[in-house]
């Protein structure tokens, strides 16, 4: 029995949660009816004419790509525009299009895990861990009785007590509160000048840090005391295995020249090829990788103290300045290995295909496109080091 398109996208979104996507990104279902039946899915890096042709020609009802077709806002998808023409072709053929982009970059496992596996790394941790919601804990002491329910409901309504798919989460313990109302006080319990001991409940709830002011205001409004006793504690962020890039290790150290060859053999061939910057004899063991354009994570790779950084789209000036900084005594910086953008992300296609295959079994056939859709298609061989220096 075939699956629904919605079943396939649910599997993909469990593996690559849309919440991990950058706020500028466009991920998810681009076109297709969630109730349509799907028996075949094609995975590719790019939604271009070649992969659309392959999907339609092979009878796939869904094309899953890493790169978005409609990344920036559009006002129409007319068939007289390049991208609109692809959308029309897909719809007419009954083939859906789904994108997992920066959410697949940050997922665990994700794009960089597939890249690390392709070159033989054992992954240790993300290079740039995903940001997690900063949490507080509020602890408040409430007199035993109806006030406990009132305060609990007020805090929940203001945003406290939400943990994953659960709300109103709290912990309560019994105890005794003590206070002495002074002149000018208007106590809800007891009277001025008399020491009071009251049976109270200690109520604890977590809350998003950005909701701190709202939760404290709700507490003050609902609490029966004139001056409620409470604490707000900032909680340490838990470790996250999600995030951009990965740090990993090789089974044994090898020279940069040999490691560059390893990367070249592990990735599909492109006109861009694989190039490296650094001492060819430098031993490489601990490596950072980032699928796609990893220029922005260069600082994180330096901070990680790795021997080499493998990514795509490194620019001339940052790379040159990086090597210059590494020439200073006592300040080693990673060797750089630059690969084609498409090649660095292509291993993810097989990973995503395996995710769907494992979840939906024989009900859906999965295939990975082997078409090279890297935009660079021609390479003229160079002869490094023959220019020499201008004579003085």
TrEMBL record:
Gene3D superfamilies: 3.30.70.120, NIF3 (NGG1p interacting factor 3)-like. The keyword Metal-binding applies. The keyword Ion transport does not apply. It comes from the Bacteria. Keywords: Metal-binding. Transmembrane segments: none annotated. PANTHER family: GTP CYCLOHYDROLASE 1 TYPE 2 HOMOLOG, NGG1 INTERACTING FACTOR 3. Belongs to the GTP cyclohydrolase I type 2/NIF3 family. Homohexamer. This is GTP cyclohydrolase 1 type 2 homolog. It comes from Pseudonocardia acidicola.
